[in-house]
Recover the amino acids of this structure.
């Protein structure tokens, strides 16, 4: 943790993320306007202090800032849950494959290969089409995209650790596979998995917004940054702010996760760590 | 006996530091030594004692940042290398002074043919054309004992075994008839029987070309068999330096004594216990005020913990001089006490 | 200037799927057929039936139609169009093997009799007021018997009687039509050549017109039209179309089986607001008959429950047992036809009477699935309408109607529809449909919202084009550039 | 080399087979059917018509049977007919393929020429502030939602003719210059994210390589800094980057879907999207299979480049 | 036939041990295209209380042998008898209990400790595992006492208990590794190059420690090293391996004073002695070439290409390991195979 705070990149990332978390928390109690209430008299008003619509209004006259704030929670929820699920299942698969080796490894990794050769967005689109547009289905779709990625990362990590002598030492003391798995392998692959997770969080935000943008994600009228952009698309040329701010919101949060991930990677990099 | 010989390389009061997050590491601190023509100069010491950094400093190959040469002179043929510009340095590197490294598996560029890698030096320093250089490459490979040199020259490093790769490194290093060859633990990564081959090769090349060699190793046996002069390093400093025979016969510095005593020897009778130096090597970022070895030294005096001992020169009993940095010897010999 | 070839380039957002008038369903194909073929009768710009290949017709009883054909009409291959071709064409449409969507329009035909080279008699098995309307469909166009026998089907060739002939077709890129010099209306068409360019994006269509690479395009996307309107260098032609945006209920589900609930919802809907917000003002509020069919449609102020009245709506709800409103779902899709924006506005408006509508935004394929299975509380749709009330309303709302997915059953409505169907004169039918419109507004199984404008955007040089109401390009025959 | 390529090509078969199975069953898991989509909300069909249609749409047979039938035809190079348009699927896809390939290629190219130099600069810059600045810029690039960036481009460049394609696509062969200009912004929108990834990998890889013993060897030989970097470091550092780039073509192909949508480009991604919406089974299967093939082929090519540059890989082929 | 050692039953007996690794190839279906014979017909015994050394060049199969003995590596053929019992036949469930009898100390002080476990937990782990398995009944407090006791024995300050591996030096880590190996009070300790990675001064500390522990606890060691001097110092009997086979087995003094196998001779002469005059005078036997790859199909004596005294028979026939004189076995055709046991060429 202290190393994290010393790394400027990770620190900035963390601050950005905390900012979004704060906004999400605030949005639970207070919002400048009603995020769903249409205001026919004020359609597509440009940003202005006078009207109080700091980011302007959308094609239904709803306050964009309010909707961005409201959407932060959705984005965070989806990103975090999808990453958690994808990481858990993928890591399990990867660890399983890497640890058992042989045919298991072969087939699990083949499956991952196959899933990998689908562009991730296309895969997510498929899953969404099958499951239907529900917020929790977005989570499922994104986690399915993540499973092969985490499987790869964790398998690589397991392979690197599996042949360490401390694993042999545990076996030679009479440990069984489950013990070694839970005591030695899992704790030791946590760091690469965490790094992958923070990067996945950023990609999840982008995927969610791309899905919503294509009309397959979070359902209107509930705001998500992606469906805000999707809605804005129609009126983009008339009212550019409807597209500008939700995009900036996405970029900011994604940047936060990316900075954190990159920073964490630095921290974990043995080259940078071993200097005494 | 080597006093009469001409000095090829002279290191004066060299100091190299690394600025790291946990403080300044004094990797090399006030190291001085001379290397004479045709001499094999050994540097021994434990891991982290500054052997490699000393030699990388000679060619100014210290990665910077975090490393920095903070003081000293390195005089090659009357010229201070620490003041040389980039061009002059390039002519010296690989030309007058060349190096071989510990791990032959990683010291060669995996993507380039062996011949290209050797020819590069020749083209650079001798201005040979690619063709001439390639011819010379084959000669060099033969000289280092690589069979079927014509064919092997056209192969890639991964097609060579470890011992062979070290031979390639040596061929590359002697290509320009350097005055000094710096061999940084050239055999540590190799098997004993292969080590014998490589050491034998270095020895013969040094003799036949009157080339000076700085041989870095932590194996005292290697030093004994190869070197004329030896310097023992501890915590970034040379603690004892002498011709090889007197040093082994009668080590003066307690560290040298401990080191010698702690090595199991094939020729000695089966004994119950080895000597072992207590404690662990110091942290170079946080050295004690006095002698760095004092905390582990059985003979440590109070002064040892407060002040760093000066270099004492003494006779080595065979007409040469030896140098020791230890308060025990200063008080004995010159009575210079604080 | 004379001698110079007059070429009109028209941008379309979709490639034609095929050209066989009896088979095609896609909008894009119909637009080509408009120019390549003729029918016995056609619509004018007010959706009135006017002569086309049939110079005139008689209706001796409400099940018999006798058509007198134009003389000297030539197919593009040079052969003359005769009653035999008409007989062949109608039979081909009726043949189940052809799988023609036009079959349902004229399936009541019992017999077709050639009375002479230029005279055909058609007898129906039952009276059908919208029979002529059916014949006006491209799907009932007159094709050359010889050509069908030669080519099997006409998807890739065009042997019609239309003002233009197919010259070249590069799929997904362009289709070139050239003037038919033998066209039966002398002096027409004015244009020498029409090039269709496939440009899928609405904004690009507009960009093409601004740039001058296109002369004309139909644009559906309201915001793009809005942009076009801001540009004074281009002409925007608008008129209410025949498609109807509806908000319909599954009338078998609670609480929509209660007419009071439906009335309450209808009273809470503000059509003008929906048009303003969801269509940027580019639509016309409508009743059960598309507003563009001026000869039939009643003005909205004559229809009950069409003016918002929240107090009354709440009272009705209370009466129906929902003093605090209720919650239900609106199925909608994120596509033009799916009406997501409309659903959002509707949802917002219903809040005023305490009714909580939840949106079920589904992907288009799912939307169709729900539609087919009638699996919805309510649904926002864009219904393909018709200027002919029997055609539109019978199938939509009659208890036996093919697309009555509201599962609506009402004796009054059925009676009126059946009555309107057997009468043939406008004067007799008009009062029937007036009453029907009022009954439908009263019972509100569907809340009819608006008809989106049909919009054509063109450069200022394009003159003489008229819109029909369903996108038809027929009037390119009279267009000059 | 020939044998290596052959072996690698063979190894693609199971992956593609897996893809084909998954996509075949996946599309049929999507609720709603092609037939319903075909009928839409407007068309009425008689029962006997329905019967016939059901047969044509394959709704009367179990999915595994259909799969085997499809696979059989696939092996003869027949991807089947679109249920929607009645046209053959393959020509339709092939017609869209050039655009998608151009888009992917330009995006890859842009990301490489942006990412690699920046990565090297960042690795070689000793000044930590510059390094951090470059890295943050890179991460910013990675954080831009592609479709949003594309939308902004549309807003910003809508006044400039020829830069925003908006539907009218001009093939490379027809007019290379027009083609390049038109696809520049879309490719950039797709490629910027990958450029950031490439930059990061180049930086790490370069840092790693610069610490290798053979770099020290090269320096000790007296080679000039430039020579050390270009001849010894760069080649070694770029190798893993090539693999990463290949691996990320999936990302590019996926990105193409939204970008094609925003710029209204008639590419495969967009076709895929509509095919899914329309439940046009053969079309989806064909597209996914072709995209997967492209993906694995690109990876094969990157591996071949790797093998061509790295002699260690070549040896493997001799043994195998 | 018995040697000078009078122990009737060896603690460990390795009989015709073979460990082959398959060399596989194939994309969909993996095919075996050959074997890498890491250990090829190795037999030797270790008596109770003895320290036996195993030396040989890199890749000759020392570690593989060690792992096989510790039952951490599947064997291809042969028997490993522990106290006369063949454990490899034992079901996995029972083997866990037996494992406490033989424990390993590993070469790499870095990878042999889990970076996420404290010194205390690392040493306690074997005990906890056995407790979990029900083969030992110890309370947490007893475990604690035992671990602290082990730390004392291994020369680790008790205050180090809660430190993590990265906070220790290489020597200290190796002490932790030794303490861990001793936790189950094993009869046999297999030490796979325990000092190779350590500095000379640290190396002697560890060697002394291991020796003290042997005296104190009556341990039996199988000690693996590539440094002959270390093995010679530490062990009473030495097994010399070459390319997966045993070249020579002899008591250490005998091996040093009178090596029989040409490989052993070369090996001995290659070990540098830290005594300049002697070292300079020594006549070196320089071997030609490199150690061949164990994956190649081989015939005859494994050492034939590098051997100065190779004969015709060496090319075709693999020499058996025979007793050249009491307690001294050698696998070399120079020493008259079959019956001619007292042929002495020196
Ligand atoms: N790049 C670097 N950054 C920071 N510290 C360094 C760096 N290189 C060397 N050092 C430090 O300098 C000191 C001397 O290192 P050096 O490599 O000279 O030791 P050595 O005697 O060669 O050891 P070995 O026998 O392990 O090779 C060590 O404490 C090491 O940690
Ligand atoms: N799991 C494995 N799969 C395939 N080959 C292996 C495996 N483990 C060891 N080998 C091979 O078996 C041979 C013997 O290996 P081993 O590790 O036993 O040698 P060693 O004598 O311990 O060498 P070192 O001194 O380098 O530790 C080597 O050629 C090695 O590459
Ligand atoms: Mg070193
Ligand atoms: Mg080993």
């Amino acid at each position: 943790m202290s190393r994290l705070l010393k790394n400027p990149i990770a620190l900035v990332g963390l601050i950005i993320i905390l900012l979004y978390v704060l906004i999400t928390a605030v949005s639970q109690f207070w919002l400048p306007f009603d995020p769903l209430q249409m205001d026919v008299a004020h359609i597509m008003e440009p940003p202005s202090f006078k009207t109080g619509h700091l980011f302007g209004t959308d094609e239904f006259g709803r306050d964009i800032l309010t909707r961005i704030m409201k959407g932060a929670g959705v984005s965070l929820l989806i990103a975090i849950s999808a990453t958690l699920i994808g990481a858990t299942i993928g890591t399990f698969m990867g660890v399983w494959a890497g640890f058992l080796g042989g045919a298991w490894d072969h087939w699990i990794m083949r499956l991952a290969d196959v899933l990998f050769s689908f562009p991730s967005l296309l895969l997510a689109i498929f899953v969404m089409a099958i499951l239907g547009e529900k917020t929790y289905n977005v989570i499922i779709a994104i986690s399915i995209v993540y499973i092969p990625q985490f499987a790869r990362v964790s398998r690589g990590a397991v392979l690197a650790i599996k042949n360490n002598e401390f694993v042999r030492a545990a076996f030679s003391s009479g440990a069984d596979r489950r013990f070694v798995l839970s005591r030695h392998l899992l704790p030791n692959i946590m760091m690469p998995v965490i790094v992958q997770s923070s990067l996945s969080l950023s990609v999840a935000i982008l995927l969610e917004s791309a899905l919503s943008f294509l009309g397959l994600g979070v359902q209107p009228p509930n705001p998500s940054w992606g469906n805000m952009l999707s809605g804005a698309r129609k009126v983009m040329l008339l009212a550019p702010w409807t597209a500008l701010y939700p995009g900036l919101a996405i970029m900011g949060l994604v940047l936060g996760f990316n900075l954190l991930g990159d920073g964490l990677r630095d921290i974990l990099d043995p080259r940078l760590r071993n200097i005494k | 006996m080597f006093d009469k010989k001409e000095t090829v390389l002279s290191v004066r009061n060299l100091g190299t530091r690394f600025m790291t997050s946990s403080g300044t590491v004094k990797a090399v601190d006030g190291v001085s030594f001379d290397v004479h023509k045709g001499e094999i100069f050994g540097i021994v010491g434990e891991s982290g004692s500054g052997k490699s950094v000393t030699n990388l400093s000679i060619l100014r190959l210290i990665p910077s940042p975090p490393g920095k040469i903070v003081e000293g002179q390195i005089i090659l043929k009357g010229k201070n290398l620490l003041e040389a510009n980039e061009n002059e340095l390039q002519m010296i590197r690989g030309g007058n002074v060349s190096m071989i490294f510990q791990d032959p598996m990683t010291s060669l560029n995996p993507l380039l043919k062996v011949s290209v890698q050797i020819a590069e030096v020749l083209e650079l320093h001798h201005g040979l054309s690619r063709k001439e250089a390639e011819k010379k490459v084959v000669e060099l490979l033969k000289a280092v004992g690589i069979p079927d040199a014509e064919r092997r020259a056209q192969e890639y490093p991964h097609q060579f075994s470890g011992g062979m790769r070290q031979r390639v490194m040596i061929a590359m290093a002697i290509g320009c008839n350097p005055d000094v060859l710096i061999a940084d633990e050239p055999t540590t990564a190799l098997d004993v029987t292969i080590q014998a081959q490589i050491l034998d090769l270095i020895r013969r090349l040094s003799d036949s070309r009157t080339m000076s060699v700085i041989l870095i190793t932590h194996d005292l046996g290697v030093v004994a068999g190869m070197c004329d002069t030896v310097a023992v390093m501890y915590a970034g400093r040379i603690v004892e330096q002498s011709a090889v025979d007197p040093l082994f016969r009668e080590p003066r510095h307690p560290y040298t004594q401990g080191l010698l005593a702690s090595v199991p020897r094939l020729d000695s009778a089966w004994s119950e216990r080895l000597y072992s130096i207590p404690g662990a090597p110091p942290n170079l970022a946080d050295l004690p005020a006095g002698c760095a070895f004092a905390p582990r030294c059985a003979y440590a005096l109070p002064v040892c913990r407060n002040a760093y001992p000066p270099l004492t020169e003494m006779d080595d009993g065979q007409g040469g001089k030896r140098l020791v940095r230890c308060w025990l010897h200063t008080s004995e010999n010159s009575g210079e006490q604080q | 200037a004379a001698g110079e070839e007059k070429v009109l380039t028209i941008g379309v957002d979709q490639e034609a799927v095929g050209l066989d008038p009896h088979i095609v369903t896609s909008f894009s194909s119909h637009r080509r057929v408009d120019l390549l073929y003729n029918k016995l009768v056609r619509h004018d710009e007010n959706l009135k039936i006017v002569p086309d290949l049939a110079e005139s017709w008689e209706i001796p009883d409400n099940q018999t139609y006798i058509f007198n054909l134009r003389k000297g009409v030539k197919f593009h291959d040079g052969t003359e169009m005769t009653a035999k071709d008409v007989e062949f064409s109608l039979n081909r449409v009726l043949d189940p093997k052809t799988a023609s969507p036009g079959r349902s329009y004229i399936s009541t035909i019992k017999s077709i009799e050639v009375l002479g080279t230029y005279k055909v008699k058609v007898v129906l098995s039952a009276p059908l007021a919208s029979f002529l309307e059916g014949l006006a469909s491209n799907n009932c166009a007159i094709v050359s018997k010889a050509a069908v026998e030669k080519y099997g089907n006409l998807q890739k060739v065009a042997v019609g009687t239309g003002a233009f002939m197919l010259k070249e077709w590069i799929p997904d890129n362009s289709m070139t039509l050239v003037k038919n010099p033998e066209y039966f209306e002398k002096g027409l068409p004015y244009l020498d050549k029409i090039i269709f360019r496939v440009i899928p994006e609405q904004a690009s269509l507009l960009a093409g017109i601004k740039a001058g690479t296109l002369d004309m395009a139909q644009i559906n996307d309201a915001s793009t039209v809005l942009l076009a309107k801001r540009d004074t260098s281009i002409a925007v032609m608008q008129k209410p179309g025949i498609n109807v945006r509806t908000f319909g209920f599954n009338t078998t589900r609670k609480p929509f089986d209660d007419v009071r609930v439906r009335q309450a919802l209808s009273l809470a809907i503000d059509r003008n607001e929906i048009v303003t917000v969801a269509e940027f003002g580019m639509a016309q509020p409508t009743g059960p008959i598309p507003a563009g069919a001026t000869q039939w449609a009643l003005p909205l102020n004559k229809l009950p429950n069409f003016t918002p009245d929240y107090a009354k709506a709440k009272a009705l709800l209370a009466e129906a047992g929902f003093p605090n409103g209720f919650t239900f779902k609106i199925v909608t899709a994120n596509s033009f036809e799916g009406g997501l924006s409309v659903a959002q506005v509707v949802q917002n408006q219903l809040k005023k009477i305490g009714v909580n509508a939840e949106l079920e935004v589904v992907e288009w394929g799912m939307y169709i699935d729900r539609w087919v299975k009638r699996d919805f509380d309510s649904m926002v749709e864009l219904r393909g309408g018709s200027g002919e009330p029997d055609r539109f309303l019978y199938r939509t709302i009659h208890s036996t109607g093919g697309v009555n997915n509201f599962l609506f059953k009402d004796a009054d409505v059925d009676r009126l529809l059946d009555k309107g169907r057997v009468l043939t004169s406008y004067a007799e039918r008009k009062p029937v449909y007036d009453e029907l419109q009022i009954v439908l507004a009263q019972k509100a199984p569907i809340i009819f919202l608006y008809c989106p404008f049909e919009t054509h955007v063109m450069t200022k040089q394009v003159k003489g084009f008229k819109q029909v109401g369903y996108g038809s390009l027929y009037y390119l025959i009279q267009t000059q550039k | 080399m020939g044998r290596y390529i052959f072996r690698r090509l063979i190894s693609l078969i199971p992956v593609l087979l897996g893809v084909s199975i998954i996509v075949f069953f996946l599309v049929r898991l999507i609720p709603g059917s092609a037939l319903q989509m075909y009928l839409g909300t407007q068309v009425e069909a008689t029962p006997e018509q329905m019967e016939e249609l059901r047969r044509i749409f394959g709704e009367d047979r179990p999915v595994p049977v259909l799969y085997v039938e499809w696979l059989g035809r696939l092996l003869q190079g027949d991807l089947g007919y679109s249920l929607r348009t009645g046209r053959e699927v393959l020509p339709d896809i092939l017609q869209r393929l050039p655009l998608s390939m151009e888009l992917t290629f330009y995006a890859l190219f842009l990301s490489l020429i942006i990412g690699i130099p920046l990565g090297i600069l960042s690795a070689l810059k000793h000044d930590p502030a510059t390094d951090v600045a470059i890295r943050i810029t890179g991460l910013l690039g990675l954080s831009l939602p592609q479709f949003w960036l594309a939308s902004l481009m549309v807003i910003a460049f809508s006044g400039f003719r020829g830069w925003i394609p908006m539907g009218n696509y001009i093939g490379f062969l027809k007019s290379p210059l027009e083609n390049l200009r038109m696809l520049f912004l879309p490719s950039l929108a797709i490629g910027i994210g990958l450029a950031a990834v490439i930059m990061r990998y180049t930086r790490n890889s370069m840092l790693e390589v610069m610490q290798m013993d053979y770099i020290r060897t090269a320096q000790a030989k007296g080679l000039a800094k430039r020579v050390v970097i270009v001849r010894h470091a760069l080649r070694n550092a770029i190798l893993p980057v090539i693999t990463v780039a290949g691996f990320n073509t999936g990302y590019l192909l996926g990105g193409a879907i939204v970008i094609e949508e925003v710029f209204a480009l008639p590419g495969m991604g967009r076709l895929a999207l509509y095919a899914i919406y329309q439940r046009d089974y053969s079309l989806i299967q064909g597209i996914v299979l072709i995209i997967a093939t492209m993906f694995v082929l690109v990876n094969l090519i990157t591996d071949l480049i790797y093998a061509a540059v790295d002699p260690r890989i070549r040896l493997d082929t001799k043994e195998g | 036939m018995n040697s000078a050692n009078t122990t009737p039953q060896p603690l460990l007996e390795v009989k015709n041990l073979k460990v082959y690794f398959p060399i596989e190839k194939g994309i969909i279906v993996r095919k075996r295209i050959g074997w890498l014979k890491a250990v090829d017909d190795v037999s030797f015994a270790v008596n109770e209380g003895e320290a036996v050394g195993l030396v040989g060049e890199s890749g000759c199969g020392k570690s593989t042998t060690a792992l096989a003995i510790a039952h951490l590596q599947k064997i291809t053929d042969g028997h490993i008898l522990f106290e006369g019992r063949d454990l490899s036949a034992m079901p996995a469930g029972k083997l866990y209990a037996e494992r406490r009898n033989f424990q390993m100390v590993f070469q790499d002080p870095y990878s042999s400790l889990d970076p996420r476990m404290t010194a205390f937990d690392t040493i306690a782990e074997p005990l906890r595992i056995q407790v979990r398995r029900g083969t030992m009944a110890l309370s947490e407090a007893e475990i604690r006492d035992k671990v602290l006791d082990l730390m004392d024995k291994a020369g680790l300050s008790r205050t180090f208990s809660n430190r993590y591996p990265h906070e220790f030096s290489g020597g200290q880590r190796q002490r932790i590794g030794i303490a861990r190996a001793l936790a189950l009070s094993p009869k046999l300790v297999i030490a796979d190059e325990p000092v190779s990675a350590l500095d000379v001064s640290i190396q002697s500390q560890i060697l002394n420690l291991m020796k003290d522990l042997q005296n104190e606890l009556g341990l039996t060691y199988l000690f693996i090293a590539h440094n002959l001097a270390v093995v010679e110092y530490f062990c009473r009997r030495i097994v010399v391996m070459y390319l997966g086979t045993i070249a020579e087995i002899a008591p250490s003094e005998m091996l040093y004073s009178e090596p029989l196998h040409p490989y052993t001779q070369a090996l001995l002469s290659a070990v540098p002695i830290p005594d300049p005059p002697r070292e300079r005078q020594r006549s070196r036997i320089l071997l030609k070439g490199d150690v061949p790859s164990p994956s190649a199909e081989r015939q005859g004596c494994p050492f034939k290409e590098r051997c100065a005294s190779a004969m015709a028979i060496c090319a075709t026939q693999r020499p058996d390991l025979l007793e050249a004189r009491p307690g001294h076995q050698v696998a070399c055709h120079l020493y008259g195979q079959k019956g001619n046991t007292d042929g002495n060429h020196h």
Observations:
- Residues A 275; B 18, 20, 25, 27, 45, 47-53, 63, 66-67, 218, 284 surround adenosine-5'-triphosphate (ligand 1) (CB under 6 Å).
- Chain E has eleven helices and twelve strands.
